[in-house]
Every structure is written in structure tokens, then in C-alpha cells.
């Protein structure tokens, strides 16, 4: 892929995955959909910004709250919509009810519980990292973010869309062999954490969540949609943080 095309794909990725105003256009969006490695690459700057509170020397609760605020400031909350919709779908009975729950604009109990679990998981994971050495804390935060984006790339490359929409916009441009790109792009995040197994665990959470949600979506929804992409990102980040903390504390 030419450098100009790669740059356009990265701009499209930044525009889609963050709130940073990069002045992307339709051509950048098209390049991004054909360049799954952009998911993993954009995860690095997001993770770096989110990790800044861990270098502040402040109390653990303040660091954890700062981490959450940094994520909201850089990424926003669009992917929480996917978590909420899937929470309602999981709480529904049967595939037909699950599909109906996804289309329902009302917020159900399942959505509230799912959001609470994700936000609580992020804060608790950050609290667990607040006492770690700076290199370890920053490394795990970045690895979890890159892993979450690798999870989204995994959905794009491995899944089939349930219908035309945001999900199909990615799946129709990707195929399994293209997953090699985002996997290689995520490798430094996995290997530069001390201890290394903490970074590997944090990054691996993304594909693990992706495979699980793809299987659920195939059986329940007939394929993935935009909500599955968003939920993969949020759930993989939480799981990545906690797996990274576990691997660090057991080292």
C-alpha cells in the first residue's frame, strides 16, 4: 500500500476512533475500511494519552478517575452505545427478541448493567495498576488499548455482517488474511511491557473478546453489526486491563 494511502487510512482511523479533528474526507474513510492495521496503530496514541494520569504521582483513586476522563476526552462515548444495545440483547429471550432489543431505542435494564460493568471494570482495573511501576502501568494501558483495537480489526476480518450498515462497511472490505497486518502492528505493544507476559495478556484480550462476540452474534443475530464492533472495543479494553494486572501481580 502506498504511503499516501496509508496516511489516508490512518487519518480515517483517527477520525472514526477518536474525537481528534484531523480533517479526514470520504477517501480517507474508504482507505481506512481497506486498511485494518489502522485499528491497531491508532490504539497507540489513544493509549498513550489515557496513560498520562499514571505518571502524575497522584493518589490511586484520582489516577483511576483521570484515566477514565482521559479516555472520554480522546475517544468520547460512541462505543458505549454498542455495549448498551448488546446488554439489552443479551438480556432478551431468544434470537428474535435479541434482534428486536437491538432496534429498540429505549434503554433497558440490560443496557444499564452492561454500562455499569464496563465503567466499573475500567476504574477497578486502573486502581489495580495505580501501584505498579510507571513503565508497567503505562505499558499495560497502551497494550490494552491496542488490543481493543486489534479486537475490532479481528471482527472486521473474521466476521460476516448481519445486514448492510456500519458492520458491513468493514467486513466487506476485509478478509482473514488481512488480520496479519493489525496483529503485527500490535506486536510492539505486547512485547514492550515489563513483564512481557502482562503485555501479551493485555493485547490478547482483544481477539479473545472478538471471537466470543462473533460466535454469539452469528448464532443470535445472524452476523455482526456496528454494535458488535463498539462492544468489542469496550469489553476488550476492560478485559485487557485486568489480564494485564493479573499477569503483572503474578510475576
UniProtKB/TrEMBL annotation:
- Pfam families xrefs: CobS
* Enzyme class label: transferase
For biological process, the GO terms are: cobalamin biosynthetic process
- Primary location recorded for the protein, binned into one broad class: membrane
Cofactor(s), names only, from the UniProt record: Mg(2+)
Describe which pathway this protein belongs to, using the record's wording.
Answer: Cofactor biosynthesis; adenosylcobalamin biosynthesis; adenosylcobalamin from cob(II)yrinate a,c-diamide: step 7/7
An example molecular function term from Gene Ontology annotations: adenosylcobinamide-GDP ribazoletransferase activity
Q: Would the keyword DNA damage be found if you checked this record's keyword annotation? A: no
Which compartments does it reside in?
Cell membrane
- Membrane-crossing ranges are 35-55, 62-80, 109-130, 137-162, 174-193
Supply the alphabetized keyword list.
Cell membrane, Cobalamin biosynthesis, Magnesium, Membrane, Transferase, Transmembrane, Transmembrane helix
Gene Ontology cellular component list:
plasma membrane
Does the record's keyword annotation contain Signal? no
Q: How does it sit in the membrane?
A: Multi-pass membrane protein
Q: Which reaction does it catalyse?
A: alpha-ribazole 5'-phosphate + adenosylcob(III)inamide-GDP = adenosylcob(III)alamin 5'-phosphate + GMP + H(+); alpha-ribazole + adenosylcob(III)inamide-GDP = adenosylcob(III)alamin + GMP + H(+)
Please state the Enzyme Commission number of this protein: 2.7.8.26
**Superkingdom classification of source:** Archaea
Q: State its role.
A: Joins adenosylcobinamide-GDP and alpha-ribazole to generate adenosylcobalamin (Ado-cobalamin). Also synthesizes adenosylcobalamin 5'-phosphate from adenosylcobinamide-GDP and alpha-ribazole 5'-phosphate.
Give the similarity note: Belongs to the CobS family.
The protein's matches in NCBIfam families, at most eight in alphabetical order, are given as:
cobS (TIGR00317)
- What this protein is called in its record is Adenosylcobinamide-GDP ribazoletransferase
Species annotation: Natronomonas moolapensis (strain DSM 18674 / CECT 7526 / JCM 14361 / 8.8.11)
Q: What is the lineage of its organism?
A: Archaea, Methanobacteriati, Methanobacteriota, Stenosarchaea group, Halobacteria
